[in-house]
TrEMBL record, chains A, B:
<protein>
    <submittedName>
        <fullName>Fatty acid--CoA ligase</fullName>
    </submittedName>
</protein>
<feature type="domain" description="AMP-dependent synthetase/ligase">
    <location>
        <begin position="31"/>
        <end position="405"/>
    </location>
</feature>
<comment type="similarity">
    <text>Belongs to the ATP-dependent AMP-binding enzyme family.</text>
</comment>
<dbReference type="InterPro" id="IPR025110">
    <property type="entry name" value="AMP-bd_C"/>
</dbReference>
<dbReference type="InterPro" id="IPR050237">
    <property type="entry name" value="ATP-dep_AMP-bd_enzyme"/>
</dbReference>
<keyword id="KW-0436">Ligase</keyword>
<dbReference type="InterPro" id="IPR000873">
    <property type="entry name" value="AMP-dep_synth/lig_dom"/>
</dbReference>
<dbReference type="Pfam" id="PF00501">
    <property type="entry name" value="AMP-binding"/>
</dbReference>
<dbReference type="InterPro" id="IPR042099">
    <property type="entry name" value="ANL_N_sf"/>
</dbReference>
<dbReference type="InterPro" id="IPR020845">
    <property type="entry name" value="AMP-binding_CS"/>
</dbReference>
<dbReference type="Pfam" id="PF13193">
    <property type="entry name" value="AMP-binding_C"/>
</dbReference>
<feature type="domain" description="AMP-binding enzyme C-terminal">
    <location>
        <begin position="455"/>
        <end position="535"/>
    </location>
</feature>
<dbReference type="GO" id="GO:0016877">
    <property type="term" value="F:ligase activity, forming carbon-sulfur bonds"/>
</dbReference>
<dbReference type="InterPro" id="IPR045851">
    <property type="entry name" value="AMP-bd_C_sf"/>
</dbReference>
């Protein structure tokens, strides 16, 4: 270790550990009267938010929660969720944001694995929790969350949220503690194995928030976040803290709108009634908003959107833009808190017509400040930034999960070589723009090179005979792997299969592709296997090919 | 200590200490071609900046600088200063930014007290350093900084800066080390005693920078900093890192203009030629810019300015605003890195005409995010936020000096009770606006209350017979202290002194002032004692009254 100059602090000097409670200081000073809105059910000021967080801390303490305990939350996106984002970590406990879209079996696994002590459960999820109750091995109590009239339940609840808050004292002296204390926990699901617990500390969340305020606020062109914006999340709060933006919005003192369930017509209505100006969502939700009953044929002027989670197509971006939405992209994952990259527009980009800007706006973007990001090959060597060569994205940043809960082996794999491995394959162009091309498990390793299965699919899908296509790598003695394509033909296409295969091979060859990247084999099928969430099940395809 | 959940990191997980080198990551990615300009002498890109910082690290290492050493810098505001802000701390050494405006005796004191190892000295300061050389007890080497042709010197210099950089390798693997390592050091001077060494760590500078990007970037109305702004500092880089903004500008990838010496006509010329859009300065400099040959009768459209250091009068703010300058205020001090408060304009403020906004814009502002700030009375109790009651500002923030170098007693006084004592007396209004009213040593403690000497001076100065006035507290058996006013009369004023005293007492009484706050004694003088920097020397006045 290098010997630098470290001076012990003067007597009395306050070391200032980075704690979530500090994110609350500024919003209420800037905008004490600004509103927090829960759909059409409740609205109150920042002054009330701060008071309610103190009341909630008292209610949780009365329910037996101590520092180091874990509090599970099953709720729709609401003011209560926001209050828990603060109050639970601020008393030194861990907030487990339960993924309510998992199967009952997976919810049970995560709650036992997290060792939840108290469970906050919305009426809508009472049937689920009642069903699991007998198998929850660590839970000591339940607290009921109700929108209108509390549902009947056989759970031994300590009381109802609003009722307990009303009864609780509105003062609470939030303690200081180690900034490396775990604040939040949630589970990420892959295609295989049990869900994995991803966790973030107070320090990490404070740093992610401070950096996001600058990144989102100081954009060239139209900044995504300014102090007069109105924020409504449309990625769920149980998933990586709604991308961390509720913390950002609270620090800035923005008006915040929590929509409850994500019903597209309802979201459109809230955009109009509450004058929402900033949201983040996945492309599928954007598409639903554009096409739903309330949204279709409508304009959405003044709505700035950060899109992420999966690739944004030019088609959706163009449609959204034509209807008044300012489109930006972000990139990150559960393990990265999540923000790693966002769209960055230079002065010359901004002088182009919007239609030309969209090519930049739909890409993964440029790494944000404090993020050290590179692409590496299978041997760990840096891959050139030529916009072509593929490498796995590995990152360092002050807000990355330091492992998976109680899974040291999986954590060590994630952090191989001191860099967090995203599993995403990308190129980086000369201007620093990152473009995700594939997942590493789906990339085809052939002739010492990596080929993106997604790029091949995109190329093949342009042929008029092809309705849908999936490309996977299959073992090849000479090349290591060779691509194989599964094709569903357009109905009414009668060309001989052998002839069509040759056609498609020539078609692919014209697309600036190396010889070894041309699929040697095309298989014509009536259906492509999909996973439960509608993605191509490449794992299954590979298994079937190998068996 | 509270028992929270702390999880050891997975094998290989990178802990990411907060280090200044990380502030360099993003600017060059966002804007590789953006320029760093040194007046009319040199301009280069961010790519070159990053390369030069690596060359400088090699040159410093070759000159014998090791981690833990201290490097002194005597230079005008330049690209070299910016490069040293990065390269010196990035190799683990401490950058001592020498205040070139101090007396030779004080410079000598600070350089010996800091235990400087290597001295980087601009040609213009060679005579000073040559004169001190024999008395510098720790210095092992000198490095010459030259704008054009190197001056002759008897100092044993290792070489000239540009020459050494040209010779040095352009790769350097900057090491990781403890984020609490000291990065920078400079001296603050009071009216009494030796200069005191104030120091900041890597962690503190990173946190100050991240917070400032958000604070300056996400303003309501016109944000002070966006990625297309052009930055030129007009507070010296030796003083609290030019308010930390060079780090902010570099992180964002802004065009930066370093003006060398602060000659008002030259600053106006640089504003015009380089299209500067953001600067920070003290009110005196702003006034000089408005009134200098090149500036008078000119407009300064598009120039946003953050004013601080001393109170901004409505007169100067109005003049600047009428000529196109966007005026904001900031508050902080050497010990606070410095930013604590900045102007915050709410939606209703922004709807007012600019002339009405100025009353808010010239005030101290609202504490920025992460700053915990309160006003307390002499017993340490909180003072109400009614816009009237005075208290001393005490603060906590993640970027406050943790003491004074080698002065544990003074450090403990600064941090009494776990809060940094600013020595500034202020009120806070119901809207959270802080307004500095006085220095605590100048405030008058009378009848159990604190009276601002500045407010009394302001009131008395409104009387037509008064040309200038100074108010100090003098010991009073009944009241503790009573105010005493020294008055210089307007020339041609012939009223009897006794009569004028009574007049002024009645005049003050009308100004909503408590009875005990009315100066019992007015002294009519021909001159008010001033310090070397032109401030009223209240210490001297009090001493003369007591003797």
């Amino acid at each position: 270790m290098i010997e630098t100059k470290i001076i012990p602090p003067a007597a009395g000097a306050y070391a200032y550990p980075l704690l979530i409670k500090q994110l609350l200081l500024s919003g209420v000073r800037y905008e004490p009267g600004r509103e927090i809105v829960y759909a059409d059910k409740l609205r109150y000021s920042y002054q009330t938010l701060n008071q309610r967080i103190r009341r909630l801390a008292n209610a949780l303490t009365a329910a037996g929660v101590k520092a180091g305990d874990t509090v599970a939350l099953l709720d729709w996106d609401s003011h209560r969720y926001l209050e828990c984002f603060f109050a639970v970590p601020m008393i030194g406990a861990v907030l487990h944001t339960v993924n309510i879209r998992l199967s009952a079996e997976q919810v049970l696994f995560t709650m036992n694995h997290a060792e939840d002590d108290l469970v906050l459960v919305h009426d809508d999820f009472l049937p689920l929790v009642e069903q699991l109750q007998g198998q929850l091995t660590t839970v000591k109590g339940y607290l009921q969350l109700t929108d209108e009239t509390a549902a009947e339940t056989c759970l031994p609840v300590v009381g109802e949220y609003e009722h307990l808050l009303a009864e609780a004292a509105d003062q609470y002296a939030f303690p200081d503690f180690d900034e490396n204390s775990v604040a939040t926990l949630f589970y990420t699901t892959g295609t295989t194995g049990d869900p994995k617990g991803v966790y973030f500390t107070h320090r990490q969340l404070v740093l992610h928030t401070l950096n996001a305020v600058g990144t989102l606020g100081a954009y060239q062109g139209l900044p995504l976040l300014r102090s007069d914006d109105v924020y409504m999340p449309i990625t769920p709060m149980f998933h990586v803290h709604a991308w961390g933006v509720p913390y950002v919005a609270t620090l800035m003192g923005l008006k915040q709108v929590y929509p409850g369930r994500y019903e597209p017509n309802r979201l459109v209505q809230l955009y109009r009634e509450e004058k929402v100006t900033f949201s983040h969502c996945v492309p599928t939700i954007l598409q639903m908003i554009l096409n739903c009953e309330a949204g279709k044929h409508s304009r959405f002027d003044g709505w700035k959107m950060l899109l992420g989670g999966s690739a944004l197509t030019l088609g959706i971006a163009s449609e959204a833009s034509a209807r008044g939405i300012q489109v930006h992209s972000g990139y990150g994952m559960s393990e990265t808190c999540p923000v790693l990259c966002t769209t960055y527009l230079r002065a010359d980009d901004l002088q182009q017509p919007m239609q030309d800007q969209l090519a930049t706006r739909i890409k993964t973007g440029v790494p944000v400040p404090m993020v050290d990001l590179k692409i590496i090959d299978a041997e760990g060597n840096d891959v050139p930034h030529d916009g072509e060569a593929l490498g796995e994205i590995v990152v360092r940043a002050p807000w990355l999960t330091q492992g998976y809960l109680k899974e040291p082996q999986k954590g060590a794999e994630l952090w191989q070589g001191g860099w967090l491995h995203t599993g995403d394959m990308a190129s980086i162009d000369a201007r620093g723009g990152v473009e995700i091309k594939d997942r590493i498990k789906d990339v085809i390793k052939t002739g010492g090179e990596w080929i993106s299965s997604l790029e091949l699919e995109s190329l093949i899908s342009e042929h008029p005979a092809v309705m849908s296509v999936a490309v996977v790598g299959i073992v090849d003695e000479q090349w290591g792997e060779r691509p194989m394509a599964l094709v569903v033909c357009e109905p009414g296409h009668y060309l001989d299969r052998k002839l069509l295969e040759a056609h498609l091979q020539t078609f692919v060859e014209r697309g600036r592709i190396n010889k070894w990247a041309i699929p040697k084999q095309f298989k014509f099928v009536t259906e492509i296997p999909k996973t439960s969430v509608g993605k191509i099940n490449k794992k299954l395809i590979r298994e079937e090919e190998m068996s």
